[in-house]
Amino acid sequence: MGVLMELRHLRTFRVVARTLNLTHAAAELHYAQSSVSEQIQALEAELGAKLFDRTSRTLTAAGKRLSGYADQVLELVEEAKAAVDDERGEPDGDLTIGALETLCAHWVPGILSDYRTRWPGVKLTLKEGGRGELYHGVRESEMDVCFTFGDAPGEPTFASRKIGEVPLVVIVPPGHPLASKEKAVPGDLRGVGFLATPKGCGFREMLDRLDGPVIDTEVGSLAALGRCVAAGMGCGIVPALVDHPGAVAVPLAGETTDVTLTWRRRDEHKPSIAALLASA
């Protein structure tokens, strides 16, 4: 007889397989929970196998096997759509862009303004998040591209391009010995107490690569870091774009961080992304 699975059922199943929760999946998909349940049941009926155990909230063995195939099928669908877009050659449809908070405020708006002027028919959505969230969003096709500081992860899924660089500054409390300097060099930081964001954050990597600073406090965000520095808890290193009211910024000689645009490699020639690269 054959199996005639609907793509929307596979998309719904993929979210259920990731969240393992019908309520959360419904909220993410903007469906009623009953609709999610009905779609999973329809898929189970077509395949003749139970995919999701609602009591234990786990995938069955059949569900686990289907999960990998669902990813492959939906990726091929996206590739097919991209191929059609390539044939038309003109950007259209939706483009979801992720960016770090600082870049949302200071870098991305100019790029998107230029893009919107050139391609008014593309519907743009801008999402803010941490670097890990952004890469996850691109990896899972929840975002088309993302803007971050530093290098993109070296994994086959991603393609990336450096689109600029931003100087780094040392932010220090008023009255700190470094506050009177016109410019700091890495040697000035040796033995100085610094605040840092957690490991895995791009800003932490900027600090870790320098020889000498002593990291004695971790904070969860750049906003909190700036306030703690202003309160006298220590120093910090941030891109010059970052707001830091109450703290003194001292340029760090010779140190910059790249601004990087990252997308899925399979979307390399998608017209809307190629157009964004041109604007960036």
Key descriptive features of the protein:
10 helices, 280 residues, two-stranded antiparallel sheet, elongated, D-Maltodextrin-Binding Protein, domain 2, Arc Repressor Mutant, subunit A, six-stranded mixed beta sheet
How would you characterize the overall build of this protein?
- The N and C termini lie far apart (51 Å).
- The protein has three domains: 80 residues, Arc Repressor Mutant, subunit A, CATH 1.10.10.10; 92 residues, Periplasmic binding protein-like II (D-Maltodextrin-Binding Protein, domain 2, 3-Layer(aba) Sandwich), CATH 3.40.190.10; 92 residues, D-Maltodextrin-Binding Protein, domain 2 (3-Layer(aba) Sandwich).
- Strands 4-3-5-10-6-9 form a six-stranded mixed beta sheet, sandwiched between helices. It has a two-stranded antiparallel ribbon with strand order 1-2. Strands 7-8 form a two-stranded parallel sheet.
- With 280 residues, it is of the alpha/beta class.
- The protein is elongated.
- The protein is built from ten helices and ten strands.
